[in-house]
Amino acid sequence: MRTEIIFTQEAIARPQAWNGPVGSETGSLVEFYGLIRETEGEEKIAALHYEAYASMAEKVMREKIAALEKKYPCQAIRIVHRLGTVPVGQSAIYVGIQSRHRREGFLLLQEFMDEFKNDVPIWKIK
Amino acid sequence: MRTEIIFTQEAIARPQAWNGPVGSETGSLVEFYGLIRETEGEEKIAALHYEAYASMAEKVMREKIAALEKKYPCQAIRIVHRLGTVPVGQSAIYVGIQSRHRREGFLLLQEFMDEFKNDVPIWKIK
User: Fold this and answer.
1) Is the pLDDT of residue A21 over 90?
2) Which residues pair with B76 in a beta bridge?
3) Under an 8 A CB cutoff, do A24 and B89 touch?
4) N or C: which end of chain B has fewer CB within 10 A?
């Protein structure tokens, strides 16, 4: 699967322009934006801060994607993770997946996000 | 839930600019594009044609959304369905969902799409 992983200190655009072409056998594009909410736990916040051990984070993400791809064959994935300060209402992460049918795209994206918080060395700081 | 349903003869933009604001308690935006593939069954196609009984299709979609919303409370949904000729590589449908957490957004979108083909009076013609 074509895999692109990007870290950025800039705001993630919404909508995100995914430059990757859509193949003639792509039937589904699923895109997810994880946004900062004003209420974190029971506390009001203005922003969260993200730091990463970026090379290791990319390595772990690529391993997770390679494992998930065996269950859910997809065509392409693009992940953009913002680092630094992310204000309320803005995106910390964007994930886009192209696949033949929507089922595998949705399942890969959901399982990737469920696993993401466990092992990827990206830290969220209030 | 804020619900917007649009039929259009124009190409659905990718990325789609969803003008609806993201609330300060929106943590997830999930977007889906259903694209025309070159292979339909075992046949090569150049395009599909869509026709709708639009007022009834909107009514049925709103009923489905109202039922799904009870299981998966979300904040806003936007559906754009293209009618007329849709060439390979272009989108027949766009669905965007804003929700507090990603789980309910993903589940509502998937169940909506699973149910969509059954009862909504939109016809796909080769």
Assistant:
1) no
2) B2, B98
3) yes
4) C
> Is the predicted pLDDT of residue B20 greater than 60, yes or no?
no
Tokens (6 digits) for B121: 């009076």
pLDDT tens figures, B50-67: 999 999 999 999 999 999
pTM, whole model, 2 decimals? 0.91
- Containing domain of residue A109, as a range? 2-14+23-125
A125's enclosing H/E stretch is: strand A122-125
In this structure, the number of other CB atoms found within 10 A of the CB of residue A85 comes to 14
CATH for A29: 3.90.1170.40
Per DSSP, the residues of B37-58 read: -SEETTEE-SEEEEEE-HHHHH
Say what the alpha-carbon torsion angle A53, A55, A56, A57 is, to the nearest 10 degrees.
70
